[in-house]
Amino acid sequence: MSKTKDSLKINDVSKDTEKLASVDPEDLMPLPGEFEEGPWGEIPAETREKYACILDDTCILPIPLPKTKAEEDDLVRKFLSGMEKLFSKENNWTFEPMLETSMEHCAKCNTCAEACHLYEASGRHDMYRPLYRSEIFRRIYKKYIKKESLSDWRNGPIDLNWRTVARLGELAYRCNICRRCAQTCPIGVDNALIAREIRKIFSQEMGIATPELHDKGSMLQLKVGSSTSMNGLVAKDNVQFIDEEFSEETGYEFSTPWDVEGADILLIHNAGEILAWPENIAAFSIIFQAAGLSYTLSSDLAAYDSINYGVFYDDVQFARTAILQAQAAKKLGVKKIILGECGHAHKALTVIADRVLPPGLQIPRESYLPTLRDIVLKDKIKLDPTRNNFPVTLHDPCNLTRLMGIIKPQRDIIKKICPQFREMHPHGPFNYCCGGGSGYAIMSRNTIPEWRAKISGRKKLEQICNAFSECRGPEEKYVAAPCSNCKGQLRDMFERYGLLEKEGLKYGGLVELVVNAMVDVKPGFISWEEE
Amino acid sequence: MATVEYEGNTFNVDEDGFIDSFDGWTKEWVQYVKLQEGIDELNEEHWMVINVLQDYYKKNGIAPMVRILSKLTKFKLKHIYELFPSGPGKGACKMAGLPKPTGCV
């Protein structure tokens, strides 16, 4: 029998049970209004036979199920070998110092738990308490890597077997890596980093990663140029098509520049926008052209797709991708790289890439937001805010706000052009993740959609409902979510609960709101009509 | 890799139920997905969408943007949903044997 939410112990993780625990849908955090919630559903038999699906009702990380005692031991041995590398500077010069801090100073005060939306949404299930995962990891570290004497007695005992390792790997994928826990910790322990570094052991040492992030993610980007499978020519073709279509629809003639040597700015979009949200690409091109910016896109390998999934699970894949993007900028001779509306790309290329790029490739890299703020606030384009006279709220992507501290520019913009703007609570640096963070937004295997709706996206959905509490119902409303991953998560949540019809809820980027208010563009750039 | 058996044919499919390789596509696959989609009878319009998707895929190695599919078939998105209830990706592309879209889409 699986454990209930109040009876879970650390060493239950090692026990020979079918699964560690299960969240009863009845226990989920209630949402404001009527939201039908069904059962978890079944993980397909083929998946169960092949992979270690022994944590809960979902299977995200495909860890091959060991068939023999030797294979079981191998899983543990490789994990420990990878863990050892995490704690040596030569092998982990990217994150070792922060990880060490998180190992040594946790006071087990559990302040982090109340900050975690997964813990809260699950009805406070111990399995999703940030400390549950971190404590298992910490005990293994102290006993087997640091080899502290009397570790069981000093730090608490840990039964290390293949189930411990498999469940810990899966638990590393029960975290959005939003770092709300790290923000609230009085000591600075970063449970999200611990989750991410566990993912790294699995990928770099054991060759186990999720297909969406690895085979069909970072590998495709390095080989074809984009995780979407678009090579440079196809991407250019598609954007040219977007130029033509939207020039006609908006009555504003524009074209997106490619591979312009000596341009001031290299703009890198998340290439998923081209395929799924072409209006976002069009909006950037219209605004940048109208403001007279000298900018270009690049059709070089990986340089027309700002994604860098390595940031979620693998430093090597991370470095390979960041270097390609910086090299493309250097080749064009631009003054700086500007990132479009993609949160994890901000984290990857503007923050973590500092640790990876060699001196010759340290080209200035920044968010699009300060530039957009200048355009809007200095009246470089003519705007009519009455065109945006509908209720608007703003979702803060974690990587822009909590990680980078970009809080005010998007608010200066939105307050100027949206008369009915209202904040979610909490917001800015204290925001909640959309629920798609760290890769979930692009996953739909087995019961992952249930996980994303029932647990990871639940808090955001509550926040959105509450932001519009005085205008619930089919009245047209807009959630500005300036990040591709966040938009993917919102789309799937809104579809699942029929919120476009029931609540008039539309989501989209911030640049779309700007273009919707542009006097030189035909009214109706944003539309609630289904095409 | 999971497999699907349909009228004596075996197809390798991924965890999302998409055929694992376009080379494995046959007309029987279409009949199989048709049942899944709850479509009674395939008409010329269904086949037009399937053919356009396959031609584009062979040329570009990826499914077309929805807007390009609309332009090439002259069907509005709403009509594509009428033809394929699961939509252009999970319905039409799946039936045409294209791989599941990847990346942040």
Blueprint of the fold:
The complex is a heterodimer of chains A (531) and B (105).
Chain A: H1 45-50, H2 69-86, H3 96-104, H4 111-115, H5 117-121, H6 130-145, H7 151-155, H8 162-171, H9 180-184, H10 191-205, H11 214-223, H12 232-250, E1 265-268, H13 272-276, H14 278-290, E2 295-296, H15 310-313, H16 315-332, E3 336-339, H17 343-351, E4 365-367, H18 369-377, E5 392-394, H19 398-403, H20 408-417, E6 421-422, H21 448-456, H22 458-467, E7 477-480, H23 484-496, H24 499-503, E8 505-508, H25 511-516
Parallel strand pairs in A: 1-2, 1-3, 3-4, 5-6, 5-7, 7-8
Chain B: E1 2-6, E2 9-13, H1 27-37, H2 44-60, H3 66-73, H4 77-83, H5 87-95
Folded structure, characterized:
- The complex is a heterodimer of chains A (531) and B (105).
- Helix content of chain A is 45%, strand content 5%.
- Chain A is mostly helical and 531 residues long.
- In chain A, the strands form 2 sheets. Chain A has a 4-stranded parallel β-sheet, with helices on both faces. A 4-stranded parallel β-sheet of chain A has the order 6-5-7-8.
- In chain A, helix 11 packs parallel to helix 16.
- Chain A is globular and about 70 Å long.
- The model of chain A has no long low-confidence stretch (mean pLDDT 96).
- Chain B has a single domain (2-95), classed as Arc Repressor Mutant, subunit A, CATH 1.10.10.370.
- The model of chain B has no long low-confidence stretch (mean pLDDT 93).
- The chains are: A mainly alpha (531), B mainly alpha (105).
- The interface between A and B is medium-sized, with 41 and 18 residues.
